[in-house]
Amino acid sequence: MTFNSRVFSVTKEQPSLPYWRLSSFYFFNCAVLGAILPYWGLYMSSLSFAYAEIGIISAVLMASNIVAPYFWGWLCDHSGRRISIIRLGNFIAAVSFACLWMDDSFYTMVGLIFVCSFCWQGLNSQFEIITLNNLTGRVHVYSQIRLWGSVGFIAAVSALGWVFESQPLTYLPIIVLSLLLFMWVTTLLVGDRNASVRQQANTPITENIRNPLILGLIVSVTLIYLSHGTYYGFYSIYLAESGIDNSTIGMLWTLAVIAELICFAVMAKLFHRIGIRPLFLFSVVMTAVRWLGIGYLPESLVMLAACQLLHGLSFSVVHATVIELIRQHFGDHNQGRGQALYCSICVGLGQAVGVGLSGWLWDWSHAGTFYLSAAIALLAGAIAWRWVYPKTLESAI
C-alpha cells in the first residue's frame, strides 16, 4: 500500500509524524478484539457456560465502556497527563486479565473482564486524542493510521481460526494476554505533543450535546451499535450451530475487517466525493440489510460473505463520521470528553444493551434476534435522516 509522502514530511510547522508508533497501538489494540470477539464466546461455551451467562459476560465487556471513557476523559482533560494515564491503564488491563488463570468461574470472570475492559477499551478514546494531537494540520492522515487496527484484527482472526482447527481453545487466554502486553509496550513509545497544555473546559459540554445534530448523532449511533450486539455476542456461535467450522468462521470475520480496512483507506475521498450525510444514511440502511441476510440464510456462505463485506459501511463509515463530527463541533477544550461520550454512550451502552438483549432472546429465536437488530438499525436510520444533517465537511479531513 502506498502512502502519500505528506505523511512523513518534516517542516517547521509540521514536525515528523510517529506514524508506525501510532499505527502499532491500533494494530495490537484491534488484535485483542480480533482474539476476543470471534472466539471468546466459543471459549466460554467450551467451559460449559449457559447462553445467558455468555450474554452477561459479553455485555460486561461492553458495559464497562459506559462509565470508563467519560471517567478517563475527565481525568485526562483535567490532569494534562493523558499518555501517562493511558500507559498505567493498559498495564492494569494486562494484569487483571492475567488473573483469570487463578479462577475462571463465572463471577470471577465477570469481575476481571470488567476491570480489564474498563482500563483497556475505556482509554481508547483518549488515545484518539493522542493521535489527533500528533496530526496537527494533517487530519487527513487519521484513516491511514486507523486502518492498521483493521490489519491487526484481520491478523488475529485469521491466524487464530487456523490455530484453533488443531489446538484447543484453552490457549486463547494466553494469546489475549500476550497481545495486551504488546499493546502496553506501544504506549511507552508514543508521546503527546500537547502534554504540556492542560485543557480547560471553558465551555460546558452540555452546550455541545444540545446541538440537534450532535444529539441526533448520539441517539442514532447508539442504536446502530445496539443492533451490533447480536453480531458481536453470538455470530460465531450462530455459525457453529449451523455447521460452519472454526477456520471458516475466522475467514468470515477476516473478510469483514478487510472491508473495514478498505473503507478506512479511502474514507477521506468518500467523504469529499459523496458527503457525510448520504454516505452515513446509506451505511445505516446497509447495516439493516446485513442483519437480515445473516438471520435469513446462515447456511449460505455466499450470503454470509456478502453480509460481512457490509461491515465496511456498518462500522468504518459510522466510526469515521462520528470522529469527524466530534472534531468539528466539540472544540479542543472538550475533545477528550467528546470522544469519551461517543465511546461510553454509543459504543459502551449501545453494545452492552444489544449483547444483553440478544442473550436474553437467543433461546427464543436465533434468526429472530438478528431480525430485531435489523429493525433497530432502521430506527437509527430514521433518526439520522431527521437530525444528522451537517451543512459542510471541513476540508481538513
Q: Which structural traits does this protein have?
A:
397 residues; mainly alpha; 0% strand; globular; disordered C terminus
Ordered list of secondary-structure elements with their pairings:
Elements: H1 19-36, H2 40-46, H3 51-79, H4 82-98, H5 106-120, H6 124-133, H7 142-166, H8 172-188, H9 205-209, H10 212-227, H11 229-241, H12 246-265, H13 267-274, H14 276-296, H15 301-309, H16 311-330, H17 335-361, H18 366-387
Please, could you describe this protein's structure?
- By secondary structure, the chain is an all-alpha fold.
- The chain is 75% helix and 0% strand.
- It contains 18 helices and no strands.
- The longest helix is centred in the first third of the chain and has 29 residues, at 51-79.
- The radius of gyration is 20 Å and the shape is globular.
Which percent range fits the helix content? over 70%
Summarize the biggest pleated sheet: none
Kindly report the oligomeric state of this protein: single chain
Low-confidence stretches: 1-12, 196-201, 393-397
* Beta-strand content: under 5%
Number of strands: 0
Q: Based on helices, strands and strand pairing, what is the structural class?
A: mainly alpha
The general outline is globular
Outline of this structure?
About 75% of the residues lie in helices and about 0% in strands. It has helices at about 20-35, 40-45, 50-80, 80-100, 105-120, 125-135, 140-165, 170-190, 205-210, 210-225, 230-240, 245-265, 265-275, 275-295, 300-310, 310-330, 335-360, 365-385.
